[in-house]
Queue: 3 jobs
Job 1
Amino acid sequence: MKKLLLAAALMLAAATARAEDNVVKVNAPPESAVAGETAPAKASTIDCADTLGVSRVAEVDTAGGGEYGEQYPPKPLLEKGEVVLTFDDGPHPEFTRQILDALAAQCTKATFFHVGRMLKEFPDVARQVQAEGHTVGTHTHTHRNLGGASMGQAEQQIESAINIAEATLPNGVAPFFRFPYLSDPQRVRDYLAKRNIAVFGIDVDSFDWRWRKPEKVMHNVLSGLDKTGRGIILFHDIHGSTAKAIPALLAELKARGYKVVHLVPKSRIETVAVAEPTAAPAPRRRARRHRRSKR
C-alpha cells in the first residue's frame, strides 16, 4: 500500500512540473534583468548615408557671454549655406518626441531652449533630448517677458530654469539662453554676460507660433533662407503643426544644399541658488509677434 501511495505521489509531482513548464509569464522581465543585468539596447537601423546629417560641430566659447542672431552685432558663427535648428518652449511629451524622431531620421542635431516649468513637468522628455545628442539651453522658468521684469525677477526666472535643468539632465545644461519673445533688455543681457551665458537670437523665423499649418511653416523657413542664405532658425516644439512640418522641411533643406551646424558649449555652467518663481503659468500658445531690439 505504501508503495502504491509513493508511486502516485511521484506521478502527481511530475504532472505538476510539466504544467508549470507550459505557463506563459505575462509581463515578466527578461532573465538578464532578473539577474540584475541590463538588457542590450536595440541597434540603430537608420542609414545616415543619404541624410541631412551634421556638417560640422561648432564649439561656442561663452566666456564673457556672446550674442548671436540678426538683432545683434555680427559675430562669426555660420558660413553661407549653413543653418542652426533651434526649438523653444518645450519639452512637450508628444510633439518634442515627434521632432526627435524626424531629426534622428535625418541624422541631424538641434538646440532646444527648454522652459524650466516644462522641463520640471516632463523631465524624461528633456533627458531623451540630451540622450539623443542634442544641445539643451534654457528659456526662463515660466516663459516670462523679461522686458517688464525687475532685475530680481529676471534673475529668478533665469537661474531657476538653469537649476532645474542641471538637476534633471545627466550631462548638465549648456550656458545658452534665449529671451522669450526675443525681448532682451540691456540690463539682463549684461547680467548674462557676467554669468558667461551666451544669448541666441534668430535669423529666420518659422512663424509657427502664428501659423499652425505645416506647409506655411515650411514656406516661411525656406523663404527666409532665400533672403539670408544662412542662419539660426526658430521653431517651437509645443506645436503639432511644427512636428508635422519638420520631416519634409529637413528633406528640403538637404535637397537645397543647406548644411546643419550643431552648437555645443566649450564649458559647463555654474549654478546660482534662487527660489523658484511662485507663479508658473504655461508658455503662451496664442500667436504673438516676437519683439526685437532696436539698434
Job 2
Amino acid sequence: MWRILDFDSACFCAGKRIRRAKVMENTQDYQDYQDYRAEILGIVRSNASPGIMRNKLEDYHENDLADVFPDLSVAERRKLCRILNLDMLADIFEYIDEKQAAEYLDEMDVRKAAAILSRMETDAVVDVLRMIPKEKRALLLELMDDEARKDMAVIAAFDDEEIGSRMTTNYIEIRENLTVKQAMTELVSQAAKNDNISTIFMVTADHTFYGAMDLKDLITARQDTRLEDLIVTSYPYVYGHELIDDCIEKLKDYSENSIPILDNDNKLLGVITSQSIVDLVDDEMGEDYAMFAGLTAEEDLKEPLKESMKKRLPWLLVLLALGTVVS
C-alpha cells in the first residue's frame, strides 16, 4: 500500500526544524488523502489485536501516520505508541512539528520517549528538546544512549546562525586507504545505522576529510580497482562555524546530495543534506518577503490582517510614494 507522496517545504522561523507539508494537486488526490486518514483512524480505533494492528499500520507511510496524530486522543496516541516499534515511531516523529512532538513525547513513559529520541535524526532531536522544559530535558538526555548524546553535543555546540547547527551525523565515512572489498564491508556495517548512503565520505587515519565517492561507483567497481581512483578529492566542503548567511550562496551552487562540514582542524563533523540547503533557502526567502512587505520578523506574517495593516500601512505608503517619485 506504499504510495508516492508529493511534499512542499513549509517554512518555520530560523533555527527551527522544517516539516514537510503534503500538497494535494487535485480533488482526487485530496479524496485519496482523506481515505487514508479515515483508514488509519479506523485501524487505531478498532479492537484488533496488537499484532494485526501493527501489520496493518506498517503498510502506511510514516508521514500519513504522523498526520493523524492530532486527530487522536491522548489514550489513542498512547495505544499507537505501544503497538508500533521504536524505529517506526522515530520515523513518524521526524514528520511532526517539534512543538507538537514535544507534547506527544510528554504523554508517554519517559524511558520510551528517550528511546524514540535516540533513534531520530540528531538535528531534529536538538530542535525537539528545545521545546521541552529544562528539568524534563535533562532527564531525557540522561536516559538516551551514549552515541545519541555525543552526536547532539556536537550539533548543540554551534549557534543557530552557524551552518554547523543544521548538519546531521547521518552519513557514511570510510578510510581512504581501504580496498574496494574492505570499503564495501565497511559500508554495509555502517548502513545499518545511517541511511544517507548515496555519497560516501573519505577520511584519513586522523579523521581529516580526504574526499568523497559516489555509491554507484563503489558498487560497480571491480575488486582489484584502487579505491583512490574512485575518490573525488576536490569535493566541496564548509566549516561548521561559518555563518549561514556567508555560505548559503556557495552551498546553493552545488548539486551534491550532501556537503561535508568540518571543524577548524579539517576533521569531518557531519554533513548538510541538499534538503536542508533547500530549507535554508526557504527560510531566507521567507525573511526577504517579510522585509519586502515591511514586516519586522517572519512571525509577523501570522498576525491578523487588521493588526498587520495598522502597523505596516505607513511604511507601505512611504514606499509607494518613493516608488512613484523614482519612476
Job 3
Amino acid sequence: MEEILTIANEFYQMNDITINKSKSCLIAINVNSQTKSEGLLMGDETLYPVAKNYPVRSLGVYITENGSKQFQKDRLKKLTNYMANILKGKPITDKQAIYIFNAVVMPMLEYSLNDMTLSEKECLKITTKFISMIKNKVLLPIMVPNALIYAKEAYDGGNITIEEILVDENQYRLTRKSLRNRQLMFLEQLVSHNGKILLHWQEITNNDRRGPKPGWFKTLENKLLTDIKTQVLSAEMQATLGE
C-alpha cells in the first residue's frame, strides 16, 4: 500500500495536484495491532487507521473495519422515516404517496444496497413508518395487517396513471383538481377487478354521485372503450392491465 501511495504522490507532484490528506481515512483489515500503531505514510503525513466500527463513506456506501452495516441500515431507516414525516402532512392521496416511494425513495434505498442485502425482517423495520403513513392516507387502522396493503386483490396502487391516458398536458392540468378531490390517480381505480370493464361514473369510489359526468371521464370512455353501453375496455387495454 505504501508503494502505491508513493507512486500516487509522485504523480500528484509531477502534475502540481494538491490532495487534502485530512479528508482521507484509512481502514486496516486483517492487520495486527503493531502495524496499526505505525500507520501509513502518505506524502509528508502519516495516516492512522480509524476505529474498527467507524463508518467511512465511499461512493454512497459505508465501510467499516469489522464489516458491520448497522450504521448504513440506520441511515436507510432515517431516510424512510424522514420521507414519511414529510408526506404525512401533505394533501396527497395514498396512491400518490406510493408513487413517490417507488419513484423517489426506492432508488435512493437501492443505491445504498450495492454492498449488502437485507432480510425480510430488516426491510419491514426500515419501511414500518412509511407503511403506517400509507394506512393513514387510506383511512385504515394502523393495526391492519400489512398483507392487506400488499395484496392486489384487496388494495392495488396501480401502474397506469390517468395522466398517461389523457396524454394532453393542458387537459390533465385542468382535471388535476377534480382527480385530487376524488383521490384518483390510476386507471386501475376506474376499472373492474378483472380489468375488462370501465366502471360507470356512479360506481367509482370517492365520487360525488350528484354531479354530472366530467369531461375527462368522457375522454377516457372515448379512448378506452369498444362499446360505451357495455363499458368493455379495448383488447389492447385489457392486455396492458393484465400484465
